[in-house]
Each structure stands twice: as structure tokens, then as C-alpha cells.
Design goal:
The chain is of the alpha/beta class. It is built from eleven helices and ten strands.
């Protein structure tokens, strides 16, 4: 079992002030930049194919999100991913809208086969990327998180990435020491899906937390810490707000003030994904039975 020290992960993030290169969709660029600043990181939205790779060698980590991709961004991502891998820098893939249209799906699969450190998406996106679902409705998920944990485990094994599935209850899956390990986190708020950029910016935050994590267990912990940061902030930001608009402002404020001590207090349920629960094309409400995931509270 992996022991988590989310307080130390947050301390490392603040100390590093990592510079995160975001090749991301135009709808969320400003929000993602503000989120990175709020947590103690630095954003850079360099996505031109002529200089993306050069900047990746300067940056601390990389996010790739093809939400509104152009040919220029596809070429920039190819070059940046190669540079990140050559320099052993963490990079995160957000497979937004995979399965919606063919070309985007092909390019996302190509990126997934290029050794991402982490993959973060909603349940439908993760199922589709694992080849066990058709994808969601645009950026929305039509699947439940627990139902796609076997797909996430299969994806973690095939890509070597830590796979995070976002929803009302997040699940983070990693293949470590021959076992498929899963962590679930509660928290957040129902306003979060109503604010454009919360999911996409979480990919950037995940990249920031991964900087300086040099072992498989440390990287797993870093991805859990990034999601815990969002869960804590989302829950606290909803206090006293009138709706999604005021929530989005409050969310940035709370992201900035979340402490390592608060992360250390979040409820973390850790366990393993039982063998034999993955069947291609069979991910659905009954794909995870009562014995599919063995867990423990910590």
C-alpha cells in the first residue's frame, strides 16, 4: 500500500514555484493561468510549433489538452512531448472530447502512446481512451467514475501513466509494484462542472504537483495531492456564494489559501483493483462488482 503525505506534496509545490507550459484550449487559457498562479505555480501558454519544444526545455512541466486544437497546436504538442520525454519532465494529457470526432480521437491516442506521466479526464473520456467506451457528450461525461475504474487500470498498465478520473468522487489509478492501486477522494461541489475550465485547469495543477516527484509512488502521491487541492477548494468556495459566477471567483481565492494541513485532513480511500475485472467493451454499471476494488480508509 502507498502511504500519502499530501502536506509534503503541497510544500514541494510551493517551494518549486513550477513553470507549467500549457498547450490547451482557447476557452480555458486565462482561467487555467489564474488557477496556476493561485496555487503557487507559474503559467505559460506557449503553443506555437516553432518554439514549443524550446520552451518545454525551459519549463518545469507540460499540459497537453486538445479541446480547441489547431494544426499548429497538434504540431506544437508533438514537439513539446518529445522534448519533455527527452528531458524527463512530467507532462499531463487531458483527453478532452475523445470519441466525439475521428481526427481528434486519433491525435489523442497518439499522445497517449507517447509516455504521459499522467492522464486526467472524466469517466467517459477515460473509458474511450482505454478502448472500452465511446466517449462523452462533448466535454461532459455520461459514465460513472466507479464503473470505469477497470478501464483506468487497463490504461495505466498500457501507458505507464497515472490515470485520474474526475467526478463527484475522483478516482486515481496507478500500476505500481505489479498491482493496480486506486485512490478515491470525496469533496468539491456541484457548481464545479458549471464553471468552464475547472476540469482543464486541474490538468495544469496536476502537472505542477508532479514537478519534483521522482519515483512512481511520489508521482502517484502528487496526482492525489492535486485532486485533493481541488476537492478542498471546491467545497470551501461554495460557502456563501449565490451561483456558479460567484463560485468561480471564490474558487480562485480559496485555491490560493489552501494549506498542506488541509490536504492532510482530507478523507482518502486507498485500495487495489482486483484482477479479472477488466473486459474490453464491457465497461458499464456492472463492470465493477462488490469485490472489484478492495479499499481502506486513511
Amino acid at each position: 500500500m502507498v502511504d500519502f503525505d499530501l502536506r509534503s506534496a503541497n510544500t514541494r509545490l510551493r517551494a518549486n514555484n513550477p513553470l507549467i507550459q500549457c498547450i490547451t484550449n482557447t476557452v480555458v487559457q486565462q482561467f487555467s493561468a489564474n488557477v496556476l498562479l493561485a496555487i503557487g505555480a507559474a503559467p505559460a501558454m506557449l503553443d506555437h510549433d516553432a518554439d514549443a519544444a524550446q520552451f518545454t526545455r525551459i519549463a518545469s512541466g507540460l499540459l497537453v489538452n486538445f479541446g480547441t486544437a489547431t494544426n499548429q497546436q497538434f504540431l506544437a504538442a508533438d514537439a513539446a512531448i518529445d522534448a519533455a520525454n527527452e528531458d524527463s519532465k512530467p507532462w499531463v494529457l487531458d483527453p478532452v472530447s475523445i470519441g466525439a470526432v475521428d481526427f481528434r480521437t486519433t491525435r489523442i491516442r497518439r499522445a497517449a502512446n507517447s509516455s504521459p506521466t499522467a492522464i486526467r479526464g472524466n469517466a467517459s473520456e477515460i473509458a474511450a481512451l482505454a478502448g472500452m467506451g465511446l466517449g462523452g457528450r462533448g466535454v461532459d461525461s455520461t459514465d460513472e467514475v466507479d464503473a470505469v475504474i477497470p478501464a483506468a487500470a487497463a490504461l495505466a498498465r498500457s501507458t505507464g501513466a497515472i490515470v485520474a478520473v474526475s467526478g463527484p468522487r475522483d478516482a486515481i489509478v496507478a500500476h505500481i509494484d505489479g498491482a493496480d492501486r486506486v485512490v478515491r477522494l470525496d469533496g468539491g461541489h456541484s457548481y464545479m462542472p458549471l464553471v468552464i475550465g475547472t476540469g482543464c485547469s486541474l490538468g495544469a495543477v496536476t502537472a505542477a504537483y508532479l514537478v519534483g516527484a521522482t519515483t512512481a509512488s511520489a508521482r502517484f502521491e502528487a496526482v492525489v495531492a492535486a485532486h485533493a487541492h481541488f476537492k478542498v477548494a471546491g467545497e470551501a468556495a461554495a460557502e456563501g456564494v449565490r451561483g456558479p459566477g460567484s463560485f468561480s471567483v471564490n474558487f480562485l481565492d480559496v485555491l490560493h489559501t489552501v494549506t498542506g494541513e488541509e490536504l492532510a485532513r482530507i478523507q482518502v480511500e486507498a485500495g487495489t483493483v482486483a484482477a479479472g475485472t477488466v473486459a474490453a467493451g464491457a465497461v458499464g454499471a456492472d463492470a465493477v462488482g462488490a469485490d472489484a476494488v478492495d479499499g481502506a480508509q486513511s
